[in-house]
Amino acid sequence: MTILITGARGKVGQAIISRLHRAGLTIRAASAEPAELTVPAGVEVAELVLDRPETFDSALRGVRQVFLYPQPAGIHDLIKAAQAAGVEHVVLLSSSSVLGPAAENDPLASHSLKVERALADSDLTCTFLRPDAFASNSLGWAHFTGRSMPIQLAYPDAHIVPIHPEDIADIAVEALTGTSLTGRSVTLTGPESLTFRDQLAILADATGSEIPVEHITRAQAEQQMGNYMPVPMVSSLLNLWEAADHGPAAIADTTRTLLGRPARTFQQWARENVGAFTQH
Ligand SMILES: NC(=O)c1ccc[n+]([C@@H]2O[C@H](COP(=O)([O-])OP(=O)(O)OC[C@H]3O[C@@H](n4cnc5c(N)ncnc54)[C@H](OP(=O)(O)O)[C@@H]3O)[C@@H](O)[C@H]2O)c1
Fold first, then answer.
1. Which of 73, 89, 183, 218 is deepest in the core (most CB within 10 A)?
2. Which residue out of 134, 137, 166 has the highest number of ligand 1 atoms within 8 Å of its CB and is therefore the one to mutate?
3. CATH of 2-131, one of 3.90.79.10, 3.40.50.11030, 3.40.50.720, 2.30.29.50
C-alpha cells in the first residue's frame, strides 16, 4: 500500500518522507522537479506536476493514500485520476487562512480553499491540516540579518502562533498512519503567540547579535514586498498582519493536543536554523 507524498521538495514533504521511510512504509516522493529531489536511499521518486494531468497516472499507480500540497490548477483531474487509481484517503496541507471571513476572495486563502472544496465534493476520505504561519517563514529575514541590516516591518507587533514544520509533519504522519485524525479538519498552531518583534528578539538571542527593527508605513511595505511577490498577495499578507496587530493570537491544536507531545517552540526552530541568519 503505497503512500504518495506530493510537493516532496517542500519542508513538510521532506520531513514526512523521512519519518515514513524510517517506519518502513512503502512511499513514493512526487515532485515537479524529481531530478532536484533528495530522498533516502530506496525511496521511489515520481514526477507530478499538478497542472499537467499527463503526469498523474504513473505517480498514482498502486497508491492508497496521498499527502497533498494544495494547487488548484488541475485539482479536478487529479481527483479523477486518484479515484481511478484506487486512492482512498487524501491528507491535504491546507491553511488556517481558509477560515477567514473573506477567504473566497483572498488570493492566499482561496488557493487552499478551492482545493479543500474540490476534495470535499469527491468520494475520497479527506483530512484537512490547516496550519497557521510556519516558523520557517522567518527565513525571509535571513538576507537582512546576514548583512546586519534592520528588519523593516509595517506591523512589528502583529501576533502569530508560528508552527514548526516538523510539528506539521508529525501530525501529518499520524493522519496517514493512524485513525485519530481521519476525515477531520484541524487548525494547527505552535505553542505560543509571538509578535514579529518577539520572534526577532528570539533570533537575536540565538545568533548572539542584535537585530534592529524599523517600523515602516504600510505603503513602504507594499512597495518593498511588491518587488518579490504579486500585488494581491502583498495586500493579503498585510491585511492579515494588520488584523493580527491587536493582541495575542489564539492557540489552536498542536502536537500536544493531538499527539500528546509538547509542541516545538520558536526558540527551538531558531536554534536549529541559526546558521541561516548569520551567513552573508
Ligand atoms: N508558509 C506558511 O506560513 C504556510 C501557512 C499555512 C499553509 N501553508 C501551505 O504550505 C505549503 C508550503 O508552504 P511553504 O511556503 O513553506 O513552502 P515549502 O514547504 O518550501 O514548499 C515549497 C513547494 O514548492 C515546490 N518547490 C519549488 N521549488 C522548490 C525548491 N527550490 N525547494 C523546495 N521546494 C520547491 C515544492 O514542490 P515540488 O517538489 O513538487 O516542486 C513544494 O511543494 C503551501 O501550499 C502553503 O499554502 C504555508
1. 89
2. 134
3. 3.40.50.720
Ligand 1 site, residue 254, Cβ cutoff 6 A? no
Kindly give, in sequence order, each residue whose CB lies less than 8 Å from that of residue 218, ignoring residues fewer than 6 positions away: 154, 238, 242
Three-class secondary structure of residue 241 per DSSP: helix
Pick the atom of ligand 1 nearest to 134's CA: 3
Domain positions in the chain are 2-131, 135-161+191-250+264-277
Could you report the per-residue pLDDT of 110-147, keeping only the tens digit for each? Answer: 999 999 999 999 999 999 999 999 999 999 999 999 89
pLDDT, one tens digit per residue, over 242-275 is: 999 999 999 999 999 999 999 999 999 999 999 9
The pTM for the full model equals 0.96
- 72 within ligand 1 shell (Cβ under 6 A): no
The residue nearest atom 8 of ligand 1, judged by CA position, is 95
Q: What is the dihedral of CA 181, 187, 193, 195, to 10 degrees?
A: 140
**Distance from the CA of 235 to the center of ligand 1, in angstroms?**
20
Separation of CA 57 and ligand 1 centre (Å): 23
pLDDT computed for residue 1 by the predictor: 85
From ligand 1's centre to the CA of 264, what distance in Å?
A: 20
| 135-161+191-250+264-277: in CATH 3.40.50.410 | no
* Cβ of 139 below 6 Å from ligand 1: no
